[in-house]
Specification:
This protein has about 170 residues and is mainly beta. The protein contains two helices and eleven strands; from the N terminus they run ββββββαβββββα. It has helices spanning about 85-90, 150-165, and strands at about 10-15, 20-25, 30-35, 50-55, 65-70, 75, 105-110, 115-125, 125-130, 135-140, 145. The strands form three sheets. It has a five-stranded mixed beta barrel. Strands 7-8-9 form a three-stranded antiparallel beta sheet, with helices on both faces.
């Protein structure tokens, strides 16, 4: 998957008020919108390499958006708006071996009256629910973790996935 706008490399100075990050690009300091409201534990060290995109829309309050933070040699996507787009790209291009060569991919599918999962993939007789989470907790070089803070919604999704498995879904 490619970004529609070029990525601009910078250095993280700080994040504040949840939606704001100060980034040093060359000799200039800019304020970028942070589209991730989570704690982003382990990502926000001053001096971390970051990538932002620029948007010249005159209606936008902030011209830059934080997209990626580099931590422990890993690039971590922090823009939650891209998570499902990345997954649909991977599913559609058979990049996820467990569900490669599937028969169909349906986004935003209800399992019960209260829970909607991000994708239902059908492969032969198997029906596979996928719930996508933007993972930002990176305490170990080889392991990304979810969640990075207490989340009732995330807990509910995990419990409902267990219920779906008991009913024959993968």
């Amino acid at each position: 998957m490619e970004f529609t706008k070029p990525l601009i490399k910078g250095k993280l100075i700080k994040r504040y008020k949840r939606f704001f990050t100060d980034v040093k690009i060359g000799k200039e300091i800019v304020t970028a919108h942070c589209p991730n409201t989570g704690s982003m534990k382990g990502l926000l060290d001053e001096g971390n390499e970051v990538y932002v995109t620029k948007n010249d829309d005159p209606k936008r309050k902030l011209k830059y958006t934080l997209e990626i933070i580099k931590v422990k040699k890993n690039l971590v996507g922090v823009n939650t708006h891209f998570a499902n787009k990345i997954v649909i790209h991977g599913l559609s291009n058979n990049l996820v071996k467990e569900v490669a060569n599937n028969d169909s991919i349906k986004p935003e599918v209800f399992f019960d009256k209260e829970t909607r999962f991000d994708f239902l993939v059908k492969k032969g007789k198997q029906k596979i629910f996928l719930e996508v989470k933007n993972v930002t907790l990176f305490r170990d070089e080889k392991i990304a973790e979810f969640p990075d803070s207490v989340t009732n919604r995330g807990s509910k999704h995990l419990k409902t996935l267990v219920t779906a498995m008991k009913k024959g879904f993968k």
